Amino acid sequence: MRYIDLRSDTVTMPTEEMRKAMFEAEVGDDVYGDDPTVNALEKMAAEIVGKEAALFVASGTMGNQLGVMTHTIRGDEIILGENAHIAVHEVGATAVLSGVQLRTIKSKDDILYPEAVEGAIRVDDIHEPRTGLICLENALANGTVVPLDVMKGVYDVARLHNIPVHLDGARLFNAATALGCTAKDITQYTDSVQFCLSKGLCAPVGSILAGTKEFINKARKNRKLLGGGMRQAGFLAAAGIVALEKMTKRLGEDHENAKYMGKRLLEIHGIELDLDKIQINMVFFKLNRPDFDSNSLASKLFERGIKINGPEGGFFRFVTNNDVSKKDIDFVIDTMKEILS
Questions:
Q1: How many CA atoms lie less than 13 Å away from 268 in the CB half-sphere?
Q2: CA 237, CA 203: separation in Å to the nearest integer?
Q3: Sites of the modification N6-(pyridoxal phosphate)lysine (predicted)?
């Protein structure tokens, strides 16, 4: 049975072109630097984001945590948004792996503004931790994007205080598509960046961490420390190359489908959402129906061939991707109308 899967854009299947590339990939031992396909992916990725070097890693969480480990020393404090993925969805790894503490900033739209960042930077006081890193996101976990002038403002503040900036760009190419710019236009305001190949880009595994050559050399050793040294990883890197060459160019379709889904969801009594906040491929909404148990929606849809996550903080999140068509969206809406009638 084929399921329509709206849980995330990590659920996509590799394309036929990816499968062929993986089957035919030339490989070697990547720990020795001998895998030509991994080397090609890393070179391509670094060029796309305008950095000197890049590193292929197993996941976005690994990429972010390597970024934190490589930039900081134990006892540092890092500045980031209170709802940032690094703070909320990475299992407390910053404390376990890097020994740093978090200084989270609250913002009504989850954007870190320059004034707030500057106010959170520690002074040179023997009693206070050193501010070792500023972590940004673009696109944000709430499905919106950060304007380039805001990122520039934060980067200017960081440079003034000689603090590096790391970007969790898990959906970097969605952000670039939404902003009408290139990935490099975004990453010019960062010292390092992590982006996923398996979120919306259909690669089965992997993320990229990019920065200076010195930074990546250090991160490569930290990757080994974490058990992340991969051997004949070119089979995976081959799919990543296709993801960057082809799949980044079709994300606008997912964004349009998300807007279409948002408009159709508003046809359902009790659905509350803000269409202006559908900026990438995510639709957040509330189901305000006292006569219906919202927690049962996921199981009822699953019975009809649709996979969703339950509500988090009162909000449902539907995510469009390469494997979800407009026809699928119509089926989802019609099914929800039937369930909620």
A1: 25
A2: 9
A3: 199
